Each structure stands twice: as C-alpha cells, then as structure tokens.
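Give me the fold.
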Amino acid sequence: MAHPDDVDFGAAGTVAGWTDEGIEVTYLMVTDGDAGGFDDGITRTEMAALRRDEQRAAAKAVGVTDVRFLGYPDGRVEATLELRRDIARVIRQVRPDRVLMPSPERNYERIYPSHPDHRAVGSAALDAVYPDARNPYAHPELLTEGLEAWTAREVWLAGGPTPNHTVDVTPHFSRKVAALKSHATQVGHMPDGALEEMLTGWMGANAAAAGLPEGSFAETFQVVDTA
C-alpha cells in the first residue's frame, strides 16, 4: 500500500479473516505517510516515525506482525522502474500467493481511494507482479541478491471502480475499527463515533449491494487471476 492506514481503511476486516484462518500476511508500505496528520507542531520526520508505529499497532490488531516500509516520499510517488524493482524484491522475498494493492484506476464515483500515490503504487505493484517478479531476467540485481523469480497467482485491487468480489467482514468489524483507531495522527481529530458512523454507512452499503443481510458490513475488491 502507499501509506500507513491505507490497508486498514480498505481491507483490515478481510485481513483479520485471513489471519484467523492461519494465512500469513505481510504488509509493505511504500511511504511512511510523512505528509499526513493535522498537527503543525510535529516535524515531518517525527510524523514518519509516528505513522510507522501506528501501522505496526494497527497490524497487530488484525493479526499481522510482518510490517515493512520502503521509505518513499509521501505525496510524490511515481510508478518508476525503481519502485517496481523494490516491490518485486519483497514479492520474491515473501513469495505470496495473493497480492493486495490499490487500484491503479481512478474511481470517479468515490474519489478518496484515487489519491495519486495510491494509483502510482497500484500501477507499480501490478507491474511488479506481472511481469517483474516472475521474470528471472527482470531486475537482474535481484538474482544476484539470491532472490529467485516468483509467480503470485492472484491480485486483489482495492478502491477501484469495478469491484467483482465482496467479503463479508461483519465478524471482524470491531477489529477494523480498532486498527483504524491505532492511526491516531489521522483519525484522532474525529468526533466520538464519527469513524464508526462513516464505516457503518460505507461498508453497510457494500453489504447491501451484495445482497448480504441487513446489519452486515463488507469490503469489496477486484480480483485478477495472475497465475
């Protein structure tokens, strides 16, 4: 994902379900989120450190302990060959079956997931899955690091305009809220209950659109076969 908190807004309920099933999950944050927050008294260096700590705490709330950061500058991410290589490196290290990433497409119905950093990371990550990580001749320096080619069999795109898969996360809603509340620099300014109200409306609408029972909450993705 591009920033600390992105995975929690888009997929924390789904991730909690995966870890409950015994699936190992690794987080990779391209930036430290140093351009975020609302406190002018905190330096950007301090903000980066705070947001790393917040993401680790949020990850723990949904059963994730492996959290990695690439340290790219927040707000200035581009889908470069360097970023593709750095993501492909982690794919070859972790050797995942499934890679969750932001959609590289702009969503005009709900603009917030379409932050330029999100779209750039989605584009670079998709290229890192196909063809970079699986092609032994792409980024030859990775082979010299002892990292053999690896094929991830599917990609889950979050926040895009054309979701084709819905996950009922009703049992994990409270853990999603807990994960998001770990990001105090981002949500601490919200009035009591406002975060829950926002999530209830948005995730309830996802569930209703999928025909789930009233009172359900859901996260949506576009799943792409990349095997």
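The chain has a mean pLDDT of 97.
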